Amino acid sequence: MNTQTPEVVESEFPMRALLAGSRRKEAALLQLARKLVLAESPSDDKAAVDACVAIATDAGRSLDGRIKLHRQRKYGDVLEVRFGPRWKSKSSLRRPVLLLGHLDTVRPIGTLRQMPCRIADGRLWGPGTLDMKVGVAMALTAVEILAEAELLNREMILLLNSDEEIGSPVSRPITEKLAHECEAVFVLEPAQGLAYKTARKGTGNWRIEIRGVAAHAGVDFEKGASALLELGRVMETVSGWTDLKRGLTVSVGVAGGGTKTNVIPAEAFAEVDVRIAKIADGPRIERKFASLEAVDKRCSLAINGGINRPPMERTRGTVKLCERAQMLAAELGIELKEASTGGASDGNFTSALGIPTLDGMGAVGEGAHASHESVLLEHLAPRTALLAGMLAKSS
Predict the structure, then answer these.
(1) Taking the CB of residue 211, how many other CB atoms lie within 10 A of it?
(2) Does residue 220 surpass a pLDDT of 90?
């Protein structure tokens, strides 16, 4: 890694003023972040996630945000907050920018007892800090800084869902509808190291169930049709679809079957993870799974699944956003790089719609979904200033 600090680039855009504003508000940002972290919010606990959403709602309302709650029955509510002048389709104002985040976490209630929210060693620690409650606090702070600097010159939409960690089953259509209104989408997921994310792989999951014919392994061996043997053939077949040059991987993560060693197994199953880097590979891999057939015709296959998030490809529009961010970062003496990742986010949905999407614009840290999840405080103010700058100068 190049550790040299790049030369500060001077321009007419007030990045230094935005950085000063971020530093002034860092304590308040951390206070809001800690409130969000202390409101534990596992995806499968609607009441808990809604309590966390309520904190973000109050924060948005305090900044004169126009609040809309998309009520949900099974999962937590989805929060939409609009800031700045209202945009209309025939208006001379620039189209809105969408800030995209989530408030649900992968951690169950009670995790704070083992992973207390605390500041130590230059970090904010705790479940959901990096992924991605600090990023949410950064976005709200960036809007506040712009308002005070009289740079809130376009409509900005903050959308926070409660089901991202489980695939966004109810929030996806809301995200896609709002994205169509917008000129660009900024995703508040954590940075990749110190880099913004310009590409993500798409994801898919399949479950393959095989039914064979049970028989005594010693007395009636020839009458049996082993579901496990058939599963082995299937696993070898699907694993062979991996194409690293295309960024396509097929991984059998869970498999099982059988009951006893002296019984030819009548049932077996496998659960498969698929990652794709190219949108065109989605339909192709779905057709391949649908065409699977048993070699032993006494066995039958039941196949369920599909691509649930399209890939976020490195498009020209996304590259332009990243180049603009790099220019603004240089004004703060920051060398900003871009990266790609095999993990997915809600930015995959908006990018697949053809809307320029830049990801990884949240906090810098490490340990997402792990016991050492934490955010590096030294990057908090500069990254918040950079986010504010991008909101004000994204076209």
Answers:
(1) 18
(2) yes
**Cα–Cα dist 292/287, whole Å:** 9
3-state DSSP helix/strand/coil percent for the chain, to nearest 5?
35, 25, 40
Specify the residue for token string 């019984």: 263
- pLDDT tens profile 312-351: 999 999 999 999 999 999 999 999 999 999 999 999 999 9
**61-81: per-residue pLDDT in tens?**
999 999 999 999 999 999 999
Going by C-alpha positions, the residue among 79, 80, 59, 67 that lies closest to residue 141 is 59
Q: Please name each of the domains of the chain with its CATH number.
A: 15-200+311-392 (3.40.630.10), 202-309 (3.30.70.360)
Percent of the chain at pLDDT > 70 equals: 95
Size of the chain, expressed as the number of residues it contains: 395
Token pair belonging to 356 = 């320029």
2 has pLDDT over 60: no
What six digits make up the tokens of 49? 């996630």
Could you give the maximum distance between any two Cα atoms of the chain, in Å?
Answer: 86
Count other C-beta atoms under 10 Å from residue 75's C-beta.
21
DSSP code of residue 130:
I
Residues 265 and 257 sit within 8 Å (Cβ to Cβ): yes
Band (pLDDT 50/70/90 cuts) for residue 3 is: very low
CA separation for the pair 307, 250 (Å, rounded): 12
- Residue 44 sits at the vertex; the CA angle it makes with 41 and 45, to the nearest 5 degrees, is 55
Radius of gyration of the chain (CA): 24
* Residue 48 near residue 105 (C-beta atoms within 8 A): no
Structure tokens at 94: 């620039």
**Other residues' Cβ atoms within 10 Å of the Cβ of residue 112:** 16
Among all residues, which ones are annotated catalytic? 104, 164
Burial 162-180 (b: 16+ CB within 10 A, else e): bbbbebbebbbebbeebbe
Residue 40's Cβ-count burial label (10 Å; 0-12, 13-18, 19+) is buried
**Residue 4 confidence (pLDDT):** 45
